[in-house]
Amino acid sequence: MEILKGGCYCGAIRYEITGPPRWSGHCHCRSCQLALGGAFVTWSKVAAADFTITSGSLKQIEKTLGIRRGFCGDCGTTLTYAADSEMAGQDWSADAWFAATTLDDPSVVEPKAHVFVSHQQPWIKLADQLPRFEEF
Ligand SMILES: [Zn+2]
Ligand SMILES: [Zn+2]
């Protein structure tokens, strides 16, 4: 199985995923905008067992109860997103979500949708034909 690698801006945190992401999408929600400092973020997911931190350790912020964003304490890059398993009726524990652009080669990602476009900034003009969802 192909191993894909990624990490944070400063290189302190490195990770590997086994195989390509199962799903990727652009999130425009206000929380992602603030947490990552960008207009939107592209998240990808793999099976939880297929995501491994290989060096460094993530710091976690849980501003919203039950939602944990993992980031590098040295450079601030947000790398992961995790929600308590009972949230939103989904089994979140089955998947590992990570910021797609932190892969060494983010071009392998194939985003499938835009979510939380209700929070999309008015100066972002989307030209792709991907489905758009008001929320997720
Ligand atoms: Zn770092
Ligand atoms: Zn978001």
Can you offer a commentary on this structure?
5% of the residues lie in helices and 35% in strands. The chain is mainly beta and 136 residues long. It has a single domain, classed as glutathione-dependent formaldehyde- activating enzyme (gfa) (Alpha-Beta Complex), CATH 3.90.1590. The protein has a 7-stranded mixed β-sheet with strand order 6-7-8-9-4-3-10. The chain has a 3-stranded antiparallel β-sheet with strand order 1-2-5, with no helix packed on it. A hairpin with a 6-residue loop joins strand 7 (67-71) and strand 8 (78-83). The longest helix is centred in the first third of the chain and has 7 residues, at 30-36. It is globular. The site of one zinc ion (ZN) has 5 residues, from helix 1. One of its GO terms (molecular function) is carbon-sulfur lyase activity.
What name goes with the CATH superfamily? glutathione-dependent formaldehyde- activating enzyme (gfa)
Number of strands: 10
Oligomer: single chain
Write down the overall mean pLDDT.
94
Order of helices and strands: EEEHEEEEEEE
Look at the helices and sheets and give the structural class: mainly beta
For the record, what CATH class applies?
A: Alpha Beta
**How many structural units, i.e. domains?**
1
Family: Belongs to the Gfa family.
InterPro entries: CENP-V/GFA, Mss4-like_sf
Keywords: Lyase, Metal-binding, Zinc
GO molecular function, one term: carbon-sulfur lyase activity
